[in-house]
Amino acid sequence: MTRPHLASLPRLRALRSLPLPLHLSTPTRPLRTPPLARSLSSASRATPTRLLIPGTLRARRRLLAVLALLPLFYFLRPASPLNPQVYSEHPVASVTPVGPAHVELVVRVPESERAQFGADAVVFSPYGVPPRPHAAPYVHTEGAAPPGTVVVQHVMVKNPDLMIERAYTPVNDVGADGEMRLVVKRVRGGEVGRLVHSRQAGDSVGLRGPVTTFAIAPPDYDRIVMISTGTAVAPFLQLLAKDVPGTTRYTLLHQTPYGGREDWSAKYIAPMAAKWGDALDVRRIQPGVVRKEDVAAALEGAQRPLVLVCLPTPLMRPLCGTLAPTLHQGPLVGLLREMGLRPDQVWKLE
Question: Among its keywords, does the record have Oxidoreductase (predicted)?
Fold first, then answer.
């Protein structure tokens, strides 16, 4: 921008002092706006921009509110009967300590709902994993269990405060007893276990189930070996409670607690030993990695064996390998493979 010449400054001052023409001067009162223009102008000012643009703060808040309610709708959908796909609230009959860190939660099951735990048990897997050991092909199957099949089931328990769920396996025959008994251990950071331990008779608990853990036909095998530790014995207790003595012999290899801790599982194993007599061989093995001599003694003389393994990952890996991330069986490796067992003779449980 060029600066004005010094000689022209007096002329500029003189022009600035002259009055403006009438049509350029400031009016003494506001100009009148036509009614139609005034209404259009006020309407444009009154219409909030945020209502016209979806991506505004209010629209985002509404969207976030809807998304936040979706999990709540899933977990709290009203449903009274037990259902494997929908949660429902059920009264607690009792919560009894069975050890320093374990309680037995008892929930009574109405007579109209007991058949789904027994004669009408459905071979249902929510993960597309074959619930029957080595069913071929490996596809999702659903339907009534064939005659002679024992269906071992679990239920899901939810903590509504944190919207999380955990699977627990009844240690008894729910259909025959009219109630489910769940042994729940309280561990550090386990919110569902904390919830169960805080419950009392008359309180309610959210359940979803029953869901099939696995289903087998015991007459297909002459020896069924079950290897477990801690609460992992629950599916084997249910299997023994539902099956009836016949030609199949059972062997339970259950680890003793670490460090002389209270052996809470003994009170649940004793009734099964009395029921089965010589057809059930209970052997308490030392904690830690399962030893070859214990497995070899359990399989001695078996012609058509089936080995069921329910162990934590650090103990399952050296014995037979872990489950695949998809919860399928995965390859058979480790000690059981070295002993000559085939994949169709071993079944891993989560």
Answer: yes
